[in-house]
Amino acid sequence: MQDILIIGGGISGITTAVEAAETGYNVTLLEKNPYLGGRVIQMNRYFPKLCPPYCGMEINLKRIRTNNKIKHYTLTEVQNITGNEGNYEVTLKINPRKVTEKCTACGECSASCPIERKDDFNLGLNTTKAVYLPHELAFPYRFVVDTKACIKCGACVEACKYGAIDLNMQAETIKLKVGSIVMATGWQPYDASKIDNLGFGKYKDVITNMMMERLAAPNGPTQGKIIRPSDQKEPKKVAFVQCAGSRDENHLPYCSAVCCLASLKQITYVRENIPDSEAFMFYIDVRTPGKYEEFYTKVKGDERVHLIKGKVASIEQDGDSLTVEAEDILSGNKLRVVVDMVVLACGMQPTNGTLNNISRDQNGFISQVQGNGIYAAGVARKPADVSSSVQDATGCALKAIQSVVRG
Ligand SMILES: Cc1cc2nc3c(=O)[nH]c(=O)nc-3n(C[C@H](O)[C@H](O)[C@H](O)COP(=O)(O)OP(=O)(O)OC[C@H]3O[C@@H](n4cnc5c(N)ncnc54)[C@H](O)[C@@H]3O)c2cc1C
């Protein structure tokens, strides 16, 4: 029987992989990053329970580690796919990690490396060395060399007493035969610098919601202390600007489904971290359907949280403060709120797949059933929270199995 190929090792891809493998099917899971886990692993906490995402992820990673029906590859992308349902031939390119299985993650290589690079895991809020551990709970727990930043000076090779670094390691190409393919390629944050009036890139203390996740995370660039990038001071007043680029014909015309909840969650980070803080959330509509309504009511009940129905017209810096200008739709008044930091609630944009002939909707999300043994799961298909992505990915395992059985 043919294997199932899953492209994308976020929570959706991992879910499809473990569900299909635990049913007895062979699965290959591939991920372009040097670690599995996708965007979820960058979150500080999950709404609505506010637990750290590692709890659930650790269980899933254990299911991968202990199941010999799952092969997984990191730093890997699809180069080519030919064939049809039940009989695909896929060419994969495995990019060189330059660090072998001998790595014990002792960190001596990093300590000796002279090169600094922007830490993409922390959205550029800090730097790492050119040889680095992607994050403290990375799977696999192994260092990696950023081949674009590395100057091949060899200091890391000398420093590694386990002989685990091979700067001459080359990319490998392998071919697989698979019966069905699941695209779980997820999302990327909308580029906030495209939104001219909101000051991202111009003012240091205008940050995005993903940056806020990393600022609040205990394993983030500030060890979980929420401070302003400009002067490392605690912000006492923080504005959250909803639909930053979303529901806007000039940017993303759709709603990303999770940004209101993400901001309400991040308001709790600010309020817990800085007890005398105040939060202002500017919104078009607050969308917290079903079970999430209770979470919204709880956050809104805090008297230092102000929810303002109105789209933000502009953000301007004045000294070391930021002035947010908006119309309060309910009162009809023009508002100018002076704050210390602004968080833009940027939406989720589908990642560009490398595959041709994949049908997508008008917003770039992949259609779930392509009619040829190729399926889409999670946010690759539509904006969604984690629990909906997991349900979707579980259903997708069944679709992928049916294709393999038919083939
Ligand atoms: C600010 C913010 C906060 C959020 N907080 C929460 C929360 O608290 N609770 C909640 O339920 N939801 C939250 N979400 C939503 C949550 O992030 C998504 O539901 C979740 O990430 C969906 O997982 P996924 O696996 O579908 O996609 P992703 O997490 O994007 O994973 C996709 C994976 O595929 C990989 N990939 C992409 N293209 C390729 C390729 N061509 N080849 C190989 N690999 C590829 C990517 O590197 C990535 O690892 C939040 C979203 C935002 C924007």
UniProtKB/TrEMBL annotation:
Residues in 4Fe-4S ferredoxin-type domain copies: 94-124, 141-170
GO MF annotations in UniProt: 4 iron, 4 sulfur cluster binding; metal ion binding; oxidoreductase activity
UniProt keyword terms in alphabetical order: 4Fe-4S, FAD, Flavoprotein, Iron, Iron-sulfur, Metal-binding, Oxidoreductase
Protein name: Heterodisulfide reductase subunit A
InterPro entries to which the protein is assigned, alphabetical: 4Fe4S_Fe-S-bd (IPR017896), 4Fe4S_Fe_S_CS (IPR017900), FAD-dep_OxRdtase (IPR006076), FAD/NAD-bd_sf (IPR036188), HdrA-like (IPR039650)
Iron-sulfur among keywords: yes
UniProt entry tagged with the keyword Oxidoreductase: yes
Record lineage: Bacteria, Candidatus Desantisiibacteriota
Cofactor(s) required for function per UniProt: FAD
Classification via SUPFAM superfamilies: 4Fe-4S ferredoxins, FAD/NAD(P)-binding domain
Source taxon at top rank: Bacteria
Record family assignment: Belongs to the HdrA family.
